[in-house]
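Narrative of activities, Objective 1.

The group set out to show that a structural description can be obtained from nothing but a protein's sequence at a throughput compatible with the screening campaign. Below is one input-output pair from the validation batch, recorded exactly as produced.
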Amino acid sequence: MKRVFTLLAGLVLCVSPLVLAQPEEAPLGIFTHAATLTDGFAFPEDQSYSNGAYTIIASGNDVWNNSDGAYYACKEISGSFVVTADFEWNRMVQPEQDFTAGNEWMKMGIMFRAEADNAASQHAYAILRRDYGTDLQWRDTAGGSSGDSGLIAKGATELNTIRLQRSGNTFVAYRKQADGTFKQIGSHTNDT
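Output recorded for this entry:
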């Protein structure tokens, strides 16, 4: 069976309201827990934090449709927030492997997740795809279908820095430009 690698662990932030019923205790940098959803997995030796940088190797079938398969690290915070992070794809398990090989929807990013250990949880997710295209994805209700703002290809002056902002039930995703400004890539309000 072919594995699709999604770099979620340590790159995803779970934000309140958050139910931490059965997440794994797996501190990594600022993250206090890790969660495994359906077929997601990662080995502790593949996760590291040093000098403000996280290295994560993890797997899962996707964060999309009605249920997710992923592994990620998370931390509970409450209220409105702005989270900004720089991302870079790295070589996977085999050093000679081309990180752009495999599933075109391999992705990493910053996520709000209502329930850390519920594979069908409501969420909003600012992503960078393996080709560095960006998108804002969401699931408005637990077990409901997924939606997105539409994939945007990486522009010549765009960096691999994304931002997810939450104000009430509205989520806005941004991408950093070479001049230091942030360009909006999507916005979504969850009315449920």
